[in-house]
Every structure is written in structure tokens, then in C-alpha cells.
Fold each of these.
Amino acid sequence: MKNRENIPRATIERLPLYYRCLDKMDTFEEVEVVSSKDLGGKLDIPSTQVRKDLSYYGEFGRRGVGYNVNELKRSVGKILGVDRTWEAILVGAGNLGRALVNYGSFAMMGFKITNVFDNDLNKIGNVINTLEVKSIQELPKVVQKNEIKLGVISVPAEAAQEVADEMVDAGVKAIWNFAPTRLYVPDGIEVRNEDLAVGIVSLIYHLSWQEETGE
Ligand SMILES: NC(=O)c1ccc[n+]([C@@H]2O[C@H](COP(=O)([O-])OP(=O)(O)OC[C@H]3O[C@@H](n4cnc5c(N)ncnc54)[C@H](O)[C@@H]3O)[C@@H](O)[C@H]2O)c1
């Protein structure tokens, strides 16, 4: 495998797409072998790109034959770290937080929200998908006891930095942030911002451009 630092971010971001597609083929479609052309075709990614992405991590498949779907799924799963389950905490048991906790398909990606926190006394004690909402004050104890490395932020933007600081102080190493604000974290802490508004605004941009130009 090449040095991880030299692997393009775009390649890393395509790996979950390969993994999900391979998992579907393996689990539901019982496909045994797939070519880079067919795998790429399902994802709108050129076969040359598929081969290049995978080549960063080693030699997979056989020329002229293709990839064994189950083997490649397991290899990509291992590279991604989804061959095990990563426990996560979520802070912010509001509309979005509830939707995330209720979403069942994260398990396939090796991710499981096991603790939910809020600071609203009306929410603490409520149950979301079998998880009782805990007071934010319990966060350090729970994170340390369970050695949880992953945190999800679904609080309003103005509370997000404070929550991120609390997570980092407790030992969280990677944050999935849904609040539309930039977070400042120490070196070595990974943040992934999920700004849903950016997606919809780019769609609206295209619609308004079409209306203006008639294209
Ligand atoms: N709802 C959506 O579809 C959606 C979509 C995109 C982005 N977002 C973003 O996600 C975040 C949450 O949105 P929402 O609609 O779920 O809001 P919400 O008001 O329904 O929920 C926010 C929750 O965070 C809790 N909270 C606030 N400050 C806290 C703190 N310091 N510690 C612990 N808990 C705290 C609140 O008590 C509340 O339960 C916002 O930043 C929003 O911009 C939401």
C-alpha cells in the first residue's frame, strides 16, 4: 500500500461508494465477480479511475477476469475500517439528531450511535430508538469509559464549538458535524462537515440558471 498521506482525498471519498455497491452485489444480488467497468458503471465512475483508486491499496482482482466481489468488499471494508463497529456519541437530540439516531443503515458502514446527549431538561430521559437521551454533563464519563472516538454534532450552530470542545476534551478524535459552522479543533482531530444547505443551494443555482437562460 502507498503511504496513506499520498492517497488523494477524492479516492478516499470514493471508497465508501465502492464498498456500498459491493456490499449490495454480495449480499442481495449474489454477484460473485465484477469487472472494474461494471463496478464503475454502477457508480458513474470510469473503469480506469476504479482501477487507479484500488491500486493505491494493493493488487486486487485478476486481469481479464475481474474482482471477486466478496473478497474485494472485505478488503475495501478493512481499508475503510468498517470491518468493525465504531461506537459514536451524538449531541443534540432535536429534529436532525432524532432522524440520525433512527436511521438503521449506518450499521452497514461500521457506525453505531450508542449514546445521545442534550442539555434540554425536556429532552433528557426521552427515548429515541431504544436510546435514552442523557444529560450533556454525562458526556466525559461515557466517552472515557467506553473509549468512544467518534462524535456527531446536531446542535444549533451557536452551540457547536462548545460541544466540539467538550467532545475533544473527553477523548473524541473524529467529529461528524451537521451544524452549519466552522469548528476549530486541535491537530490530530478530524472533522467532517455535512452542510446540507450547500447541496440544495447548488441545485437551486442550476434551476435558476436554467430559467434565466432557457437551457
Ligand atoms: N433539521 C434538519 O433537517 C437539518 C438539516 C441540516 C442541518 N441541520 C443543522 O443541524 C443542527 C440541528 O438542527 P435541528 O433542526 O435538529 O435543531 P433542533 O433545535 O431541533 O435540535 C437541536 C438540539 O440541540 C440541543 N442543544 C442545543 N445546545 C446544546 C448544547 N450546548 N449541548 C447539548 N445539546 C444542545 C437542543 O436542546 C436541541 O435538542 C443545526 O445546526 C441545523 O442547522 C439541520
Amino acid sequence: MAMDAIEELYQRILTRKSASPDISYTARLFTLGEDEIVKKVGEEAIEVILAAKSQGNLRLVEEVADLTYHVLVLLALRGVSPTDVAAELARRQK
Ligand SMILES: N=c1c2ncn([C@@H]3O[C@H](COP(=O)(O)OP(=O)(O)OP(=O)(O)O)[C@@H](O)[C@H]3O)c2ncn1[C@@H]1O[C@H](COP(=O)(O)O)[C@@H](O)[C@H]1O
């Protein structure tokens, strides 16, 4: 996954923290709170597993995109940036 695309989406998600829930799914998620967002992450992770086990790569890509988006919403809620995750991955590199 291109880091630029992740960062761009993350920045757009951050702007939805102050947007109206009436016009934005992301703003609605922020209004629902952490428990609901974590639940969505879990559901999307299960969708990734199901796609991997029984569907083609196109569906797998779609489900990983859904999961990535919801993880970014969780990170945004917690004030963690994808750059922090990239730094952790870089630290692990051998
Ligand atoms: N990348 C995404 C994205 N990926 C997935 N989703 C939404 O995540 C939901 C997936 O959940 P489900 O499949 O469970 O569908 P659902 O039944 O609608 O969801 P629930 O009502 O069950 O929560 C869908 O509503 C998708 O539209 C996304 N919603 C928004 N974005 C991006 O986030 C940014 C902000 O968008 P707004 O939220 O529209 O402001 C924009 O750049 C969007 O392109």
C-alpha cells in the first residue's frame, strides 16, 4: 500500500472529526465513539478472512481497503498517525 495514499486518506479522515454526521459516514463513526469503531475494525477483519478463504483477489483488495479505512479512523480517534505505525515497522526492519 502506498504510504502517500494512506497519509492522504488519514488527513481527510481527520477533517471529518469536526464535520456533520449528517453528511459524512466518517463523522458519524466519530460520533458513535471508540467501542463502535473497534467493533467495525473487527467486522472488517472478519470480512478480510472470509474473502481470503472463499473469494477472489478483487474482493480481497476491497475488504483490505475497508479494513484499512476503519483502522485509520481508529488511529485518528486516538491521535495516532500512520507515520507512527510506519516508524514502528521501520524499527523492526532487519
Ligand atoms: N475510504 C473510505 C471508506 N471505505 C469504506 N467506507 C465505508 O465503510 C462502510 C463499510 O461498512 P459496511 O460494509 O459494514 O457497510 P454499512 O452497512 O454501510 O456500515 P454500517 O452501517 O454497518 O456501519 C461503508 O459505508 C463504506 O462507505 C468508507 N467511507 C469513507 N472513505 C473515505 O473517507 C473519506 C471521508 O469520507 P466521508 O465519510 O464520506 O466524509 C473520503 O476520502 C472517503 O473516500
